[in-house]
Amino acid sequence: MSDRKLRVGIIGADASASWAGAAHIPALRTQPLLELAAVATRREASAKAAAEAFGIARWYADPYALIADDSLDIVTVAVKVPAHRALVLAALKAGKAVYSESPLGANLAETEEMAGAAGSLHTAIGLQGRHNPSVRRAAELVASGRLGQILSARVTATTFGYGPQTTSAYDYFNKSASGASFMTITVGHVLDVIETVLGDIVEVDARTALLWPEIEVVDTGETSFREVCDHADIIATTARGATVSAQVLAGVPPEQAGFRFEVRGADGWLTLTGDHLAGVQVGDLTLSASVPFEAPEAPVASGVEPTAAAFWTGASINVGELYASLARDIVTGSHTTPGFQHALRNSRLVAAVERAAQTGERQRNLA
User: Are both 87 and 142 inside the same structural domain?
Assistant: First the structure.
């Protein structure tokens, strides 16, 4: 590997209110091993505007032209989920390392296909909450045995989304065909943090609800109909024998937003807390414990981006940690970053939770 930085091209880096602009762009600016080299959207005007806004020279109105750019080392796919499959498969065929937002596929079959196509290429899945420094330290603390036998764990997680109101730009989250549902996004991220700290989940039971079947589209005054659940209660058992209860709440007012993960062992306890409106995957987290522990490392990205909306403060923190992990893997030839096989595991776990809720039967042997 030469001393040059790895060059990243982002598909979906729209300059106006995109997740890529709020999280990926500021995250990349903090990376010593990476540089943002190109952006692509499906329209020339928006692609040019993004390049100008983010201060880069190369832009593409055709995402497949970005994928074909031989100067790029990593392709980031940050578009709506139904478009993932074609773009990811093309990037893999081109031999690029690929970072895809989560969920990887619009359904389990697509996720299986992409995971199978990845082979030995470096991939990363946007389950970035597990990369938060406090989550990593909590996992180390549990693995060290200092808490003793894990007796129980409890999670309360919230998101502002999937409530009684939406905007037209985000109404697609309420449709089953989007692939970006309350279960695949919000619950999927929560389950991944649980597994990071306590180990693989091997049994789940769940109940879900649709609390707001009709929702107001505030910018048009129209009524939309939600096709996905917006509440989940989950009981899970991990391979270590720990029992976890998790309640995931949607449509929570800003002043009530929060994430709290309590783990109690025979010899002590730990707690992870956060308060970002969008959920555990977006903001920073704080670790506290009854036993001594080394303070988590400072994140690579500060999470403060002057050009992003105040709502997205903190969005680049965990994304920055994921990019740093992927860059280290590419430079050293290692494969420590959870990639598309991990995305497949998360998708199968979410599917098991959905089956448990639909059938009323506990799902087992998930390891």
Answer: no
